[in-house]
Amino acid sequence: MTTAPSTTTDEAPQPATPAPPKNSWAPLRPLILRLHFYAGVLVAPFLLVAAVTGLLYAASFQAEKIVYDHEMTVPAGERKLPVSEQVAAARKAHPEGTISAVRPSPDADATTRVLLSGVPGVDEGHTLAVFVDPYTAKVRGSLEQYGSTGALPLRTWIDEFHRDLHLGESGRLYSELAASWLWVISAGGLVLWFSRRRALRKVRGTSGRRRTLGLHGSIGVWAAAGFFFLSATGLTWSAYAGANIDELRTSLGQATPSVSASAGGDHAGHGSAAGQAGDAAHGVGLDKVLAAARSKGLGDPVEIVPPADAKSAYVVKQVQRSWPEKQDSVAIDPASGEVMDVVRFADYPVLAKLTRWGIDLHTGTLFGLANQIALMLLALCLILLIVWGYRMWWQRGRGTAFGRPIPRGAWQQVLPQILVPLLAGIAVLGYFLPLFGIPLAAFLAVDILLGEIAYRRGRRTYGAGTPAQ
Hints:
The protein has helices spanning 28-67, 69-72, 83-93, 153-164, 172-195, 208-235, 241-251, 286-295, 350-362, 368-396, 416-432, 434-462, and strands at residues 98-103, 112-117, 127-132, 139-145, 302-305, 314-318, 329-332, 339-343. By secondary structure, it is an alpha+beta fold. This is PepSY domain-containing protein. Residues 80-142 form the PepSY domain.
């Protein structure tokens, strides 16, 4: 038997080097990757439809000006006729329905619009816009109009296609689903992109899936802020999330204010030009009402809404949605022509202003043509990202029909102090954004089911000792 030589030295023993601390956030990356992958694959078709229809809608503003140039514009004249004369000409040509609003010519070359509701053949919620030359009172045509921006048939059709695919209220679920998940997919993509090494983020000189990934990530990073904005603003007037947002704003005292339209007495309608309640000539008439609104600083463009009944007032409101926005409104007593109530846009609560600006920026009206071009570029970026995303899925499978799935089980490696707050936050978001929460729950249920099926197949094939994947 031999004895091992002694390794004792005069030096003190060195303490063992401590293991580097475990990165508590590292297990989140495969979890985010799995969510980004499945959400991208399953929600991308809805996002693709939203992007294509949104691209068309952004272009429809300029197309509308070309298609309906005859109705919308006139040669500039010297003096515009009183609004009452223009409305009388419109009613002579179109006596059907009732006058719901009048939009006097806002520019030297623009026509006046007289809006009629209850017209046979006009869709519910739409009006018939009668276009009148403000200099001659000649009617230049009539078109169906929808919404506060005065969308005409071409833009209305594209708008409704973008919003609900012409399927009514049930169709709005698609656009809310797309808006609910766009920010989630964008945020996940950002985390994945910036968590990769810089070398892997290069596009030039690469090929195959790596090049596709580089293009997908680069465009996604640059467009992410725009996607977050489109998602947030799109949700503000969606069916379910929008209702929750409105309720939250109201509870915080941030609801959009409106002018009081109550005339407050039985004397309404005794003016010199008194007509029937609900008629544009009711009480003092349109010309004096418009003059009273001008005296309170309401410049063009404005919309005059006649009283709904004998106890209601005229309401005159500014309808400019381009910057700077004009959204002041006044209520005017139909008997005396006196201003009864004034609401200034400058006095709106902060969230009400942000909502107004956000919606108008989302719809391309806030900054006009530049706004519309930016929206078209964002839509084009989203279309490219979806195409590249599906291409990466194909390339991941190396030419098979479907790409290989992302391995499951990463959530088990996340520390409880991170996982529990994360799940709580997701639950709160799922409550306020139902079309985020419900599909997410469905994704998890299907994923668990598929995992269980794969596990059972593995046990039958390789024996009971096969671990679940």
